[in-house]
Write a structure and sequence with these properties.
Layout lengths: L1 H15 L23 E4 L6 H9 L7 E4 L23 H24 L10 E2 L5 E2 L6 H13 L20 H10 L10 H4 L4 E2 L5 E5 L4 E5 L2 E4 L9 E3 L9 E4 L4
Parallel strand pairs: 1-2
Antiparallel strand pairs: 3-4, 5-10, 6-7, 6-10, 7-8, 8-9
Helix pairs in contact: 4-5
């Protein structure tokens, strides 16, 4: 009976001494951290702490560790006068105003271009704008548009007898000088012609898009239905006109294909 009690006492002593499972240790002999909570590795735009990463990997349950990036960490905060947050690198009010001024200037320039160019899309008929320049029909061939554009360039200059014959660029033009300039703008004429010279220019008869009417004393041309002529404007200079005039006594000439 005494022997049985002795064995029982020995077992109790061994259990009390810690004969159960021992605590785990890491490779260096230190006890492992038993924290079950996931570790957060803090990253900033400037640096990553490698020691923090290693420590997080050793923690039990390291698969649950999170990498948290602090956006804007270390950057100087910028606030507007009314307290609204302004993102770093955002355009300033001065930058925005400068861009708006530039955009408005470009828009105004484009509107002026549309208001004076022969390339403005106006529909099936040519017409004269209030400022005296002409616009071509949508379906006009490229040379026709160039003739109109060249005519627009001199359509506000005064009449000058012999103007445009000594040089392409002149302070004023007469009837044949202005027509010569417009045709040269499309590459249809190499040198200025007089009114008499236009009587044998190109081919006989009216053209589909451009027709020259000339005699020894006067001439004009009709382009896409518009008359480019010095007459009818009190000799103010060659102008685009929608009204027609008599062709009696004038030779009709045209360039092939137009």
């Amino acid at each position: 009976m005494r022997a049985g009690w002795a064995v029982l006492a020995l077992c109790v002593a061994l259990l009390a001494a810690g004969c159960g499972r021992s605590e785990p240790v890491d490779d260096k002999g230190d006890k492992a951290d038993r924290t079950d909570a996931p570790a957060d590795v803090v990253l900033t735009p400037d640096t990553v702490d490698p020691d923090a990463v290693r420590r997080a990997a050793k923690v039990r349950g390291s698969a649950n560790a999170r990498a948290v990036q602090l956006r804007g960490a270390g950057e100087k905060k910028t606030y507007s006068g009314n307290g609204d947050y302004v993102s770093p690198g955002a355009a300033t009010d001065a930058d925005v105003k400068a861009e708006l001024r530039e955009a408005r200037a470009e828009l105004a320039k484009f509107k002026r271009f549309l208001g004076t160019t022969a390339y403005l899309q106006t529909g099936p008929r040519a017409r004269v704008l209030p400022n005296g320049t002409a616009v071509a029909p949508d379906n006009a061939p490229e040379p026709v548009k160039r003739v109109i554009q060249a005519g627009n360039a001199i359509s506000k200059l005064p009449y000058k007898w012999g103007g445009g014959h000594g040089a392409w660029r002149d302070s004023g033009y007469d009837c044949s000088g202005s027509v010569s300039f417009a045709l040269a703008g499309a590459g249809l004429l190499e040198a200025p012609l007089t009114s008499g010279g236009f009587m044998t220019w190109g081919r006989s008869g009216p053209g589909e898009w451009i027709t020259i009417y000339a005699n020894e004393g006067h001439m004009y041309m009709v382009v896409a239905g518009l008359r480019f002529d010095t007459s009818g404007r009190a000799r103010a200079g060659t102008r685009w006109q929608e009204a027609s005039r008599s062709t009696s006594g004038l030779a009709a000439r045209h360039t092939p294909g137009l």
